[in-house]
């Protein structure tokens, strides 16, 4: 399938060449000009990667890093437009760029249990890089700065689907994180994911797409549209970290996710904290009224587990139940 233009591209950066800048955007005029089909561009030569980085360092201080440029190689073939900031980030952090380009990562699987039946309900797929010195948080932060967050998010979803096909039995769920900000037109942007699901013969009903905890949502209508596209395609959706940020009780009725994950801050010491218990009892009542399922994440002790179980929470996840691992644990045993 053709990638969406928003998902980022890996234009080859030649050892020598020119940076092309639109004359209407560039403050630096001491350069040769080149006429293109619809505008006049300025040509700034570079003779090595270091030379190019030095040029960008200067522009970083004097130019708007949001402007777009093109790279002209030795054959006078211009690249697709790219922001100065994105180009600078990819040159300064080649290891991170290579990890995304080569998909040098995998999914670890953390078990999720049915608290009432004490059986495996499914697994959450969590990104882990092949390079242990690069954390997932660092990689996603870089991808955001380098204009590659849509590509990384898409590739991470693909890796999770592959892990589901290879290791998670039919009938058990696979929770897959996604960044709503990387999905511009859901009906189009999600076609690659749906194609991968079909390619690996995964039952859509076994997938739960989860809005990640770090994502800041400002357009609830857009998020609702994304969730509906998943649901209309036979998949489930989960809303993460309810109780913090945008994921408040007020939006549950608007978004109608299938599963609601409770912010781990309310799980910590829930067997002792009256404040946490008051919130948990409130959300249990609300989700029952809306016919939504509840998942408590961040369970780390037997006491937390047993209180949540007795309170009627549907599902649980956390180190007490099991840590993320390359292959799933098929039996739930807690001590």
TrEMBL record:
<dbReference type="InterPro" id="IPR001633">
    <property type="entry name" value="EAL_dom"/>
</dbReference>
<protein>
    <submittedName>
        <fullName>EAL domain-containing protein</fullName>
    </submittedName>
</protein>
<dbReference type="InterPro" id="IPR035919">
    <property type="entry name" value="EAL_sf"/>
</dbReference>
<dbReference type="Pfam" id="PF00563">
    <property type="entry name" value="EAL"/>
</dbReference>
<dbReference type="InterPro" id="IPR050706">
    <property type="entry name" value="Cyclic-di-GMP_PDE-like"/>
</dbReference>
<feature type="domain" description="EAL">
    <location>
        <begin position="88"/>
        <end position="335"/>
    </location>
</feature>
